[in-house]
Design brief:
single chain; mainly alpha; 6 helices
Length: 107
């Protein structure tokens, strides 16, 4: 099973490599905003409940970016699975079981 998964990854590494910028960008934005939120919350010099609190600057990208991230990642994975449908059909024709295909999709 691991051999089939490895061969499939070797066959389609370009498609998976194309998704890396999406995950890196999401990680950078979320990391920056969450670090800002924690630092502002731990700072003793900032009034968190006052009118000039800087928290919305960090919270809004996390909120809307989180919604966008879920939509984009869902579509990227859906697009990749659509591209690999012919490969999965071929594996099913060659005798792969449903559990084997589920393991390949899960890896």
């Amino acid at each position: 099973m691991w051999t089939i998964s490895w061969l499939q990854l070797k066959h389609s590494w370009r498609q998976w490599l194309a998704t890396i910028p999406v995950f890196v960008t999401v990680g950078l934005i979320l990391g920056f905003c969450l670090t800002g939120i924690v630092n502002v919350a731990q700072s003793q010099q900032v009034d968190l409940y006052g009118p000039n609190t800087p928290l919305p600057i960090f919270i809004m990208p996390v909120f809307f970016g989180g919604i966008t991230m879920v939509i984009v990642i869902k579509e990227v994975v859906h697009q990749l699975l659509d591209q690999f449908k012919t490969d999965y059909r071929m594996l099913a024709i060659l005798g792969a079981t449903i559990n084997a295909l589920a393991a390949i999709l899960g890896i």
